Amino acid sequence: MGVLWDFLRGFLKEFWGILCDTWGPSPATQVPLPPRYSPRYVEAAWYQWWERGGVFRPPQQVRGPPQGVPHLSLVLPPPNVTGSLHLGHALGATLQDVLARWRRMQGWSVLWVPGTDHAGIATQAVVERWLWQRRRQRPQDLGRAEFLREVWSWKERHGDEILEQLRALGASLDWSRERFTMDPGFSRAVTEAFVLLFRAGLIRRDLRAVTWSCALRSSISDIEVEPRVLAGPTQLSVPNCPHPVTFGVLVTFAYPVEGDDGLEVPVATTRPETLFGDVAVAVNPRDPRYLVRGGANRGGGASPGVTGVSHLSPGAVKVTPGHSPQDLALARAHSLPLLSVIGDDGALCPPGGGWLQGVPRFQARPLVVAALAQLGLLRGVQDHAMTLPLCSRSGDVVEFLLKRQWFLSCEEMAREALQAVTSGRLHLVPKFHEKNWKSWMENVGDWCLSRQLWWGHRVPAYQVREPPGAPGAEGPWFVGRSEAEARAEAAETLGCSPGQVQLQQDPDVLDTWFSSALFPFAALVSLVPFLVSPIPFFVSPIPFLGSLVPFFVSLVPILGSLVPFLGSPIPFSVLLHSLVRDSQGRKMSKSLGNVIDPRDVIRGATLQSLQFPRGIPECGADALRLALSSHNVQGESPKIPQKHPKNILKIVSPVTPLDLWVLSRAAAAVGSCWAHLERLQVFGISHPNFIFSEVSKASLQVPSLRPSALATLLACAELGLRLLAPFAPFVAEELWQRLPRPEPAPNTICRAPFPEPRALVSSRHVAARGGSHVVGVVSSLTVLLQCPEPARDWLEPLGPAFQTLSGAGPVELLPPGAEPGPGWVGAPAGSGNFVHLRIQVRAGPALGAGFGFPSFPQ
Hey, what CATH class is 1-37+637-763 in? Predict the structure, then answer.
């Protein structure tokens, strides 16, 4: 950035008068550029100026974008409102902003909607900690209504930090359409989606084993479960446990067979505290060791029966349906009872042993092992490799508890989402993610929507307290957009008046992912008539960016495929980008302490750490954006290309062959840049690959060539800044505003036409090939770049260029095969060329140079 700044500053300082005489004065301020590039100076005011000018708002008619104008719709995957963004968020926002700015400069109508997610579990946990640290209060001390007021107050105090970070990054979002997933309009859209899915038979209430965090006292999503692989005994800290807990140990104990003295069935488990919930011992009926009478009852709740399961390998396993999804399926297949012996808080509860009631599960574990040993039933304790499920939100060990919850059937929708990819209606970029997509969709299960929290979208389901005529009975459930709607439906179903129906709303809230997956629809489409300012941008293909976690991205087409209010095919493409990791390859996480705030890179920060012992120097938003966009986000080898705009020949006239070569290199860069952006390969075009300052310096030193070289340099600088604008908008705007331009011109580079490859100087242009050959020959002396060889005739008018670039005296061209005579030293110069230098014994540069050229193919 500093090199570009210094070059253009010197260029404008030296040639400003000549340029203004030709092009007219710049529309921007005439204040000289600072002597050194300063991100803080450049980025201080441009964003506010863009916002005030409505640069980021799409031109539109009442019902959407102007007719005949291509349009692009983007939604910012809503970050959690709980805190600040890290470099992973900055990567996603930068990629989207490059696409938005690129299309906007092409004349497209671009809508990019910002938003934040209420982040149910994360936000409630943060506020709970804040209340305890500041006031020594818990949510139960306040009650639900007062606690929610505290959460909203916390959100108002801290929620704007994320928006400030996005502005500092230069994200060109339409802030007039900012959404928050707990806004009234958005909440109505979430309720509408739930009601429609329920009435379509896709949501139902059922008793199942759910993933549960005892620390949070709530069910959690499968995506919030992190498997921890243990090679053997490992001590881990668990929330609410005073001492570390040892995992990776296998306990073997015996179940005596009732009625057969001396016969026992040994079973092994890593969870001995759950044996009170065992309802059977499953054995392989073909195993001769277990040819006993199976199916015995529990014997008054003291011991499980023996069940034959033919698909099991030899041996026996305990069946605990209350704490294992696999055991639950087995128990239901064999009509076994269902028992839960661990409560919501992780403590043992009936029908567990009364002597352990209320004891935390991991404190009960050694007590159970000791009791087995005392009874003579313990058969061994050994090291055991295992995978331990941990809650990513709380660090707690995940339990599987039997709970009645609301579940969304995803099988049919996942099938539709998979078919959308295989048929090409939904595009994944890069394509190799289709294999992961197929695996994900073929193994998706029903989705538990219930969360036992207070902060979130309340489940719009109501239970009849006491059905008329059946006092004390558990009433049925009714779903409605409001309590009045649910009461009316209940009255009609029960055959009574609405006044006789007493309802109680489900205290649970919906999984945050449910509203997050609806964000593209609720932000871009009118789900219900009363949503504010709907625009049908969503009906056309949109690039949608996500990280390499397919969960959120997959939920969008899952919900969008069957929700009736959409009424259109799956409407988007998906760019999956890689995660930003630290130097050790770890995902950025607050718990690991490796999260970097983008503002620390933009503004600089004093950090005393291993990575930054002297702090982070001020880099600026543009440098951060260029660094992020150069990252190989698609897992493929990046390349280095770029692009260009108008017909250079119309701007620069007359031009020399060397100028044409410079312009042809810009044209090649334009074509490469365009191709990469069309393929969403942002990382391939973030570095300039046409450098003309050194070549142009040569022409600027020759008075007769100066006007042409100056015009060429100005054209390339102006077009190069437009190329740079999507990637580094601040410095591009600052410098572009100071360049003189022909009228009429847009008032901001954001609205300037993006360079196009059409009508540019082709590398096949004869004169351009001559200039290419000049650079090729000179590169043997100055080590510039290699170019294809031209014919002899192309080189004859380029003698002054050779002379200036080489620092030699008069240049002579020798016919092929001719000898230069005595006093000359020659050497190959590439492409069959030879360079001859006249040797003279005196101080100073060489006085002359002769070039011998062989015959060239035409």
Answer: mainly alpha
